[in-house]
Request: fold
Amino acid sequence: MRFRPQYALTAMLALLLTACGSGPVKRVSEPAASIQQLTVGNDGNWEVDLRLRNYSSMPMRFDSVSLAVKVGDEAAGTLSATPGLSIGPESADVIKVRLQPASAARLVVADALAGSSALFYELEGSVSATPEDKKQRSFDIKSRNSLNQAPGLPGVLR
Reply:
């Protein structure tokens, strides 16, 4: 039997075309949420810059957010929003949410600001998002992080 290079070349081209034809894999990963900035207003209410992170390989529309906030050991309230915001693959964006915090939580934040100390917080709840060309899904969110006073910006934690 004789080796014929045209058959080997044809087989390699067929394999190459098969590999290219499938396109990129589209996966849906759980999103994340964190507080990017917390600003204490003159009235004691908070304006929270909430960072929503899309770890999926496709765009997702963030339809609703409901996250209980805890600062230190005190429940502050719930961040609720319906942003209707589309975030590209493996990207993030920020929404602003106002919160009228519980009195005990206000004191924890005031102490952190007065002492220039770290403010530890927790978020727990859900985010509803719709991946591109798919049905809306609800994702459970639970995260812990900390904020520090922003230099030169009174009443601002980042």
User: Anything to note?
Assistant: The two ends are 74 Å apart (CA to CA). The helical segments are 5-21, 103-114.
